[in-house]
Amino acid sequence: MSEVFPLISHTLSRQDVLNSRLVCSSWKDSVEDHLQNHPSQFNVVRSFYLVDEVVNPRLLHSPNDLIPRNLNFSWQSWRHENLLSNVPEGCTNPFLNRDISYSEMGCYFENERRAVFTQILERFGSQIWHCQSAMRILEEGSSTNANTLYQLTRSFLLLMPNLKSLDLHFEVSGGSRIDKSEYLMTPEKEELIRSRPLPPLNDLITLKLRGLINPLESAVWQHYGHVQKMRLEKEKLYSPLFQDSLENVHMDRLEELHVGPGTLEDFRRLRNMSVNSPWPLRTLSLDFSIITEDGFELVFRTISHFGATLRHLGMRLDSRFPTSLESLDLPHLETLKLRKRSCSDKGFISSLGFLQPCASLKILELSSICQYSLDSLAPLLLCPLRTLRLELDVDKDLWMALATVSQLGATLRHLELNGQYFTELSSTNRRTHSYPSIDRLTAQTLALPRLETLNIRCVRLVVDSLDFIQECTSLRKLVLKALHTDQIRGSECNKVIQFRGYFARMNESNIWISLPDLEMFELNMRANAPDYKHHEPVPDGFVQDCGVHHIYTRNGYSDVLPPRDPFY
């Protein structure tokens, strides 16, 4: 059951999950082990849009990023304050997920809520493995008492000695602003840490911190240097991520770190904190604000500081990448995700020369790629790339990308190419807009004999043939999507009708013979149908205003109306 339940859990209702625990002790142990050790409880970096998303384009995130609703039985202070009165005598653990969430946000009776939470922890705290706590630092017009916050947090942690993951969030409420002096250490704060230390929490694996101030922040770094995963976030942009008092911090087990949103000074301090005892990072995720061209050099040096162990790197930023950058000295890097916050700027990345030393790269995701970026893909030809995901500035670059990517045929397994989703055409330029047409491609254009998954998404797409994939003899899954499309011009209707007619006969096509491994082909035209006048007949086989969504397999195909897109 321990191997079966994770595979079927997403199909069960909450009541089915509860009932499965009653079958026998073995089932009970297996279900509870999955609930209490779900990967989402420990993650600090989401694996969005990597291999899982490419292989299964329907997924908006990796299955391990979020715990499904049917498996989430977390206790929440703002919903279940009457827990103690409902728990029967003799119950030793009412928390199926061993998860508890405490929040004072929007609460006008903090003392009462703290008292109830303390009573729950006094009775069941040793059963808790995962805790999320959100508290307010101050209200408008009141003063900060950092020492009180430290002692309150300490009192909670003392009652949860078996924690495996801890999330501490402190918010400056009431539109107030904390004076910078509040972040500094003082002799009084240092004495408080020495005389009343935090509990050791030897089983702690994951630590998430947001908006902490001293003395709690310094105490956390001092006592929990044994964690393996850490997430650091700011509550306010003006607040620092790392205090001046933090130097030579030992994190001998830290493998996964998320930092953001960070400034140039934050990255300088991050490097200084680990300069004498390099952290053994394998995964690093950075989210940072506008940084000058000179600042990028410092960021790259900070990242390269962890090059001896770093395997996975994600960066999300506002600034346009400079044309000339110091190379990333990451010889063991296998995964790189580089995304921008805003979708307005084009040419976000103009050169990929900084990737040349990354000779072990296997998974690459790049956002807002222009044609000049495609010209600089040459260094990647020496990398053993298996998965490539590119978001292109404009649809017309799609064909250039396909021609360039074909040179990666020796190793590439999964390919996703996205055109520009957000193009808005006026009635004037719509008449002259050229639709990308896959029938312009030849079999030699996409000569990728090891490719298993191909996903092409763009604004406009006209397809009359699948001959261009004949050389992709290992292809298992093909997805073609036209998303967020303006209405198709009347002059293009004949192509659309040919396109519909061709794919209506898909199961009679020899493509299933020429591609013996092909398992599924998905065709999704999310566009509105042509805006026909009421007196004009709708062409045969065209569903007006619904678009087209066909899924083909070797045994047949189904018409599926497109689901509502959560992004629009």
From TrEMBL:
<protein>
    <recommendedName>
        <fullName>F-box domain-containing protein</fullName>
    </recommendedName>
</protein>
<dbReference type="InterPro" id="IPR032675">
    <property type="entry name" value="LRR_dom_sf"/>
</dbReference>
